[in-house]
Amino acid sequence: MRHSIARGCAVAAIPLLGALPALAQDGNLRIYSAYPDEHMAALIEGFGAQYPDVDVQVSVQPGEQLLSTLELELRANAPQADLVGLNQASIAALAADHDAFAEYRPEGLTNVRENLRDASGLSVPACVNVYLIQYNTNAISEDEAPESWMDLTDPQWADQVAMADPASSQSIQSFLWFISEYLPQNGNGDFGWDYFGKLTENGVRLEGSHGTIRDLTAAGERPLAVQLLANGQTSANRGDPTSLVWPTEGSPGEVSSFAMLDGAANREAAQAWLDFIVSPEAQAIMPDALGCAPVLTEIGYSFPDGTAVGDVDIVAVDSTWIAENREAQIEAFEEATGN
Amino acid sequence: MTAAAPETTQGGTVAIWSRAAYAVSALVLVWLILLPFGAIFLTSFLEGDGGLSAYAEFLASRSLRTATWNSILVAMGLAGLSAVIGTALAFGVARTRMRFKGLVRVTMILALISPEFLLAMGYILLAGPNVGYANIVLRELFSMDVRTGPFDIYTLWGLVFTALPSGVSFVFLALVPAFGSMDPALEDAARLKGASPLRTIATVTLPLARPAILAGTLLAFATSLAMYGPPEMLGIPVLTVSIRESLLGLDFDEASVAAVVLVGISILALLLQRYGIRHPERYRTISGKAFAARTLDLGWPEHLLTAFGLLYVGVALILPYGTMLAVSLMKSIGNGFTADNWTLANFSTILGDDSIRKAVFLSLRLAAASAAVVAVFGVIVAYVVVRTRQPGRAILDYISVLPLAVPGTALAFALIVIYLSEPFRLLGFYGTPAILLLAYLARFIPLGVRNSQSALLQVSPELEEASRVFGAGELSTLLRITLPLILPAFVYTFLLVFVLAIPELSASIVLRGFDTQTIATSVLSVWNGNGGLAVACAYGISIFVTVSLLFLLALLARRLAAAWGGQADAAPAATH
Q: A222–B130: do the CB atoms touch at under 8 Å?
C-alpha cells in the first residue's frame, strides 16, 4: 500500500517537474544595474519576449555607488536584488570580500570568447565596453580633433576635457589601469600617474558618471571626453553632434557583466536572464542595448562611427589586477590630481 | 515657552494625561533624534583605531580640510549675500511703494519650496563656462574675444549663486513681518531730529530688525551647510559631499568626523545668532497701542528697488526654469534651439518610466506619512512643553530643535550606523522605506513642534480653564477647545512637511537602494546620465510645477482650515 502511494506520488510529480522551469520563470526579477535604464530597456524587451511572465525591475546607480550600496546591504544581510550588472572587475572586487555571488555557467557560455569568460564562474560576460575619445563636432573639426590620449594634455585643449571620477565611477578604473600600468609596462614611458597630473593642469573636469560626460560633450560644455563606447553609441542613436576617435596608443576594453546574488529570491528567473545574456538573440541586440561590442565571435559588429573592430587596438583589461588594487588606484589618482 | 495651565486643577486625570504625553514625547525624541546624534559622536571615537585617531586623520587630510573650508566659505558667502539682497527686497516690499511686490513675494515662496538641485540644473545650463546660454549671449552682445566665461558656475561663487534664491527667501520671509510691525513713532522721532529717510532707515529701521535679519541669515547659513545636490552636481568638495564619498568608500570613521564637524559648525552658528540677540528688550517695538508701519516715500530709490526686484525675479526664477523648460523640449541638447530639434518625448519618457513612477509613489507615501506623524507628534510635544509642568520639558524642547543643526547626509549616515548594528539590525529597516521615514521624521520634527508651540501659545489657557470649570474632562477639552483652535497650524504643518518631504535629497541619496529610490534621487540619477540632461530638465520642470501646485493647495487649505477653526472657536462660546 505504502509503495503504491509512493509510486502514485512519483507519477503525479513527473508532469509537475516538467512544468517546474516554466512555473519558476515568473514573478519579479530584480536587477541592480550600473547600466542606464535606456541601455537595459532593449535587453528587458528581448528577455520579455522569451519569458513573458517575468517582471524585470531595474534599479540604476553609478558603479562605485552601487558597489557601496551592495556592500552595505550585504553587511545588513539583506541584499535587495537577484542580479547585479557591473563590470567584471567590480564584481570580482565584491566577491573578494563577501560570499555574495552564486556560481552559474550558462549553456551558451562556451560560445563566448575564452579570454572574456570569468574563470570563477561568478559573473557572466555581456559585452565589451571600450574607452575612446568623444568630441563635439560643432566645436572641433575632424582635422583638428586629438588623435591620441596624450593629445588631451595639450594646452590647446585646456578646460575642454572631461573624464569620470574614480570616486563615483567603477569603469574608469579600467582607464586608470591602462594609463598607469599597461602603457608604462609596454614600453610607453610617457604614461603613468603623471599623465593625470598633466590632465589636471590642463583643467580636466571630473564627473560622477560617463552619462553626464556624454551630455556635456554633446552640449559642447566639455567638447572632449574620455568616454566609453556605450555612451558613444547612445550619442549616435540620439543624433548628438559628436564623433569618436580611436587613440593611437590603444583602447582598454572592459567586460560588462551580470552576476547572480547568492541569496537571489528568484533564482530561476535570474538564471534565465544569464542564459539569455549569452544567447545569440541577446548578443545581436547588445550594440543597441548596452551599447557595446558582443562577446560572441559569430555576431558581426562594427563601431558606431563605422570603424571595424579589427581596425582598433583593443587592450583587454586585467580585471583581476583591478579588483585587487581598486582602492590603491583611487588613492594614487587623488594624489596625482591633488584632489 | 511658558507653562500656562496648572496641572492640579483636574487632579489625577490631568497628571496621567500629561505624564503619558511626556513619556511618549521623550521616547520618540530619544529614538529619532538623540540616538542618531549619539551614533555620530560615538562612531567618531570608536571606529578605526579609536580615541581621537579619526580626528587626527581628518586634520591631516588636505581634501577634508579643503571641504571644511569650502563649506564655511560658501555658507558665509551665501548668508552675507542673502542678508543684503533679502533685506533690501523685504524693506522694499514691506515699507516702500516699489512696484511688482506680489511678483517678488511669489518668487520668494517658489524659490523656497523648489529644491536647490533643480535651480542648480538651470544655472549649470545658463552659466557653464564654455557654452552656458548666458555666457554665449553675453559674449555675442559685448563682442568678447574669449572662449570661456564671463560666468563659471563650477566655482565656489557659482555654488553660492545656485543656493542664493533659497537663502534670500529665508531672510525675506523673516523680515517682511518684522518691517511691517514696526512702531512708526521711532522713525518719526529720527525724522523730527532732522535725519534723512535713508539715514533713518540705516540708524533706526535696520537695527530694530536685527533679530529677524539674524534669524533669516542663520537659516540661510545652516541650509547652505546642509546642501548636498548643488555641490555634488558642480563637483565642489564640501563636507556633505565628503560624508557621502566617505560612505562610498565605507570609511565610517572619516564620515563620522566630517558629520561631527558639520554639526559643530551649525551649532556654533546657532549660538552666535543667540548671542547677537541677547538683549531682546532692545528690539521690542510692539506695544499695546494699535499702529501700522507707514509706507515710506523714498523717491527715486523706489525705482531702483523695483528694477532690482524684477532683476531678481528674472535671475532667481524665470531664467533657470525657462532654460530648463527649453532644454526639456530638445531631442539633442547639442543641436540647440532649432525647429527640427523640438520634441515632447522627454516628458513622455518621464511619464512612461516604471522606476520614475515607483519613485514618485514612494515619495508621495513617505511625504504623507511623515507629514501626518510630524503634525500629530508636534502637537503632543508642544502640549507637553507649553501646557504641562512636567520636569525636564525644557530639555524636550531643546532636543526637538536639534535636527536643525544636523544636515541630512549626517543624519542618514547615523541611521546606517544604527540599523546595521545589533540589536537594531534585527528590525530589518536598512534598505527599506522605513529607514527613509525615520530620516524624514527626524528632519522635520522641529517644524511640527515649533508650529504647534506657536499656535498653542496664542490660545489663551483661560478658554481651556473655562471648559474644565463647566465640567469637561481633559481629553474633551483638548478635542473640543484646543485642537479646533490650533487646527490651522496643524493643517499648515502637515502640508508644509508634505511639500518639503517630496523633494528631500540629502538624506535620501545616502539611503538609496532598490526600494528606496525617491523623486529627488531619481532626478539626480537621470541628470547623472541615466537619461540625460534633457530628460532631467523635463523631470525637473514636472517636479517644480507639482510642488508649486501643492504649495498653493497648502495655502488654500490653510485658509479654509482657518475659517473652519474660527467657527469652531465660536462654537464653545455659544455652548457655554
A: yes
